[in-house]
User: Which sequence fits this backbone?
């Protein structure tokens, strides 16, 4: 299956059974200087089953599946310094170390982990573990 | 136009001085008629000057033209401007922009932000957003 058809299939499923969430990147370390870059994404949000609560996963955690469609359309997070480095972290993938957040039904959640899934180098899906 | 919307062109936690640091561009804006640019500078301490340029390209990113320049010093400030591309304009020699300048009417299908700063800012952020239509 091609990357395009994989994304289209995920978008179709998200449109039918997903919900809107806000993905937020926070720029700045102090409250006074912080600025936010938000994008509204369609996502699946599901809690973990009891048998999945192992290791660092707790009852406060949820699993989130995102499509890159809204992220790409908004060019989120935008404004990255142009780099010529051979290996670069995809800025579209949320990251705990950057302090990325998401808002789900008004609830503020931190991104604990995010895993990009690519086909032929094209980002087709993001799986996240969030807390909050 | 293609792909109207609000795009973040610059979102930086300023620290060491930057020399014309280009940010990733937004393309696919064919048919753009106007853009509202909003620059926000949230000052913490340190630093001296910060200039944020919005630039457009007509040749796929090979050559960039300044369309607006926002200048910040050591105080929190928001500034904005609107560039419109539909009004007729006499032949004008292109010039890079001086402080707080605009080249009205100069709109192309690619847009990006460029940041130059002097001094070392601490707990200071700067952003530039573009609403294109």
Assistant:
């Amino acid at each position: 299956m091609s990357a395009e058809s994989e994304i289209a299939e995920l978008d179709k499923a998200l449109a039918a059974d997903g919900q809107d969430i806000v993905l937020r990147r926070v720029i700045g370390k102090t409250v006074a200087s912080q600025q936010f870059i938000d994008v509204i994404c369609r996502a699946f949000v599901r809690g973990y089953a009891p048998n999945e609560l192992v290791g660092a996963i707790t009852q406060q955690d949820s699993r989130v599946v995102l499509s890159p469609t809204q992220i790409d359309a908004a060019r989120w997070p935008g404004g990255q310094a142009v780099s010529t480095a051979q290996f670069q972290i995809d800025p579209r993938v949320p990251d705990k170390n950057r302090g990325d957040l998401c808002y789900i039904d008004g609830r503020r959640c931190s991104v604990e982990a995010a895993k990009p899934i690519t086909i032929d180098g094209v980002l087709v899906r993001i799986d996240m573990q969030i807390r909050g | 136009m293609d792909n109207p919307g609000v795009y973040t062109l610059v979102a930086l936690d300023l620290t060491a001085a930057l020399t014309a640091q280009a940010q990733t561009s937004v393309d696919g804006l064919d048919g753009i008629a106007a853009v509202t640019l909003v620059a926000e500078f949230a000052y913490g301490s340190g630093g001296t000057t910060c200039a944020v340029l919005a630039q457009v390209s007509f040749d796929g990113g090979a050559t960039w033209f300044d369309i607006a320049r926002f200048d910040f010093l050591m105080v929190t400030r928001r500034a904005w401007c609107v560039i419109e591309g539909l009004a007729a304009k006499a032949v004008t020699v292109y010039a890079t922009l001086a402080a707080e300048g605009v080249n009205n009417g100069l709109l192309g299908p690619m847009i990006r932000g460029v940041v130059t700063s002097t001094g070392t800012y601490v707990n200071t952020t700067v952003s530039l957003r573009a609403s294109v239509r």
User: Anything to note?
Assistant: Strands of chain B lie at 5-14, 18-22, 34-42, 45-46, 49-57, 65-72, 77-84, 110-118, 121-122, 124-132. DSSP finds no helices and ten strands in chain B. Chain B has a mean pLDDT of 96. Chain B touches chain A at residues 3, 5-13, 21-24, 26, 40, 42-44, 113, 123-125, 127-128 (CB under 8 Å).
